[in-house]
Amino acid sequence: MLSSQEMSHDPRLPSPIASPAQRVVRVDSQPQTTAEDLGRSIVTGRYDIEVFPSEQEITQRYGVSRATARDAVKILAARRLILPRAGGRRAVVATQDQWPLFDQEILGWLLKAKGACRLRIELMQVRRSVEPAAAAMAAASALPVQRGAIEAALATLEGASGREEVRDAEFAFHAAILDASGNRFFQQIRSIVAATLELAPVEDAQPHLEARDQAAERLIADAIRNHDPARAQAAMAEVLDRLLSEAEAAAPAKRSMRYIPRYGPDA
């Protein structure tokens, strides 16, 4: 097995990625802090019933300068949460289908909003659609160094203890499989994996559940190591089917899955 140092220097591998705890990069600045609060208000639906504040109103509400308010608006516009208008007119909130939901910052805001059960279901559905195929592709064509990364991540997971350590190791294992798929678009859902782990109930990290999950993940890793795409796909699908069923069972009520819901007080 290749060392972590050798793997980190292989130019064929994707760039290193953050663990769930490092998922969102925070910038300690007034524009960023102001934009974060406004962004959280947008994703929780506050501005469904209120107009988005003008720069002057932001200045008064947050006690910041006009330049800070303007920069906060630019941050939100860059993330496509609001649509600025010419002539200094008040910006309008973008519709949900325009939001970049894979954006790590927006995911971070959603994680802090109410309606986490519903969010977890939607994110698990994304994982269920992608990760079995990624596991099959990894089994079929992963580089030796990528197979080594999967085995190393699993070894770390099997030796992990405590909720945070297990969560980070779980993330590293699934991220390594996404990387080994060779599909750049699959690799982009690593933030989704991190978010579902962040949303997992505390009891999901209990020892008896950890043992069950690690046994299932050993089956996935073995199938990838043995170049068995069908088995890798089936094993990953079984794991994610169970996680999705658990997320659905934990939700307070079932709703139509056709549209992205608001994660506000009524979600």
TrEMBL record:
Domain HTH gntR-type: 34-92
Gene3D superfamilies with a match to the protein in the record: GntR ligand-binding domain-like (1.20.120.530), Winged helix-like DNA-binding domain superfamily/Winged helix DNA-binding domain (1.10.10.10)
SMART domains, per the entry: FCD, HTH_GNTR
Domain GntR C-terminal: 122-242
Alphabetical UniProt keywords: DNA-binding, Transcription, Transcription regulation
Region feature (Disordered): 1-35
Signal peptide: none
InterPro entries referenced in this protein's UniProt entry, alphabetically: GntR_C, TF_FadR/GntR_C, Tscrpt_reg_HTH_GntR, WH-like_DNA-bd_sf, WH_DNA-bd_sf
Keyword hit for Heme: no
Molecular functions per Gene Ontology: DNA binding; DNA-binding transcription factor activity
PANTHER family linked: GNTR FAMILY REGULATORY PROTEIN, TRANSCRIPTIONAL REGULATOR, GNTR FAMILY
Protein name: FadR family transcriptional regulator
Species whose genome carries this gene: Caulobacter sp. 602-2
